[in-house]
Structures are given as C-alpha cells and as structure tokens.
Model the fold of this input.
Amino acid sequence: MEIESIAGFATITKNPNASEHLYKNILGLPLEKKDEYLYADKFPGSNHFGVWPLKMAAQACFGQDEWPSDIQEPSATIEFELADIAALEAAVQEMKGKGQQFVHEARTEPWGQVVARFISPEGILVGLSYAPWLHGKA
Done:
C-alpha cells in the first residue's frame, strides 16, 4: 500500500451551529452546505500528518507535561497556514475581535514554526501557523 496524500479531514461535532460559526464565519473558510454537512472540495492539501502525544501538546501549549483540567482536552489538531507572521498576527486579532479565545497567541516554537492555538467547539486543537519551510524559507 502506498498512501499518496491526506484525502480529507473533517471534524465531528455535537454542535453544528457553533462549528459552522467558527469555521465559516470566524475563520472564513469557503464552506458549502449539503443538508447539515459543511465541506470544501479541492481545498489546498495538507503538508503534514502526525500522531502527537497529549504530553507533547501540553508542553507546546503550556510548557508542562499535563493538560490543564480547566481546558477541554483535545483529541486532534489541525493547523491553517498563513502567508507570513504579519498575516498570522492579524488573523489572531481579527478572531479575538469576533470573540475567539486562544490557548496561546502567536509564538515561535523551537522548530521555527510560529503558531497561535485555540480549542474548537469539537475539542480540536486548532493552530494558525506560519512555517517558513512551507514558503521556501528556512
């Protein structure tokens, strides 16, 4: 077997209205609707797939091994890549202006990625990202 790409990624939500508000209205993703299913076909592909231990996610977000009990524990992560750091910081401010709370605002990870993260209504750790190597910069 030879997997060529990630064919799709979908959140599974108990609160479709809250999820639609986040992904369509706050993030502005070009989603269409069929019945209750929101989707975007031929959306630009994924550049990374990983299996991230919760302990490592807690370290990346909070600098500690344990996920804080007062913040919903994520079961997945997805990151949306932006053109540059200025675009990322502007997106964070735009989302905050629409009421989105962040686990942490934009900061540079040890591997060079700049990322701001928040928890979606489905419990997904969502990142707004700028990874220089995805833009031909290192």
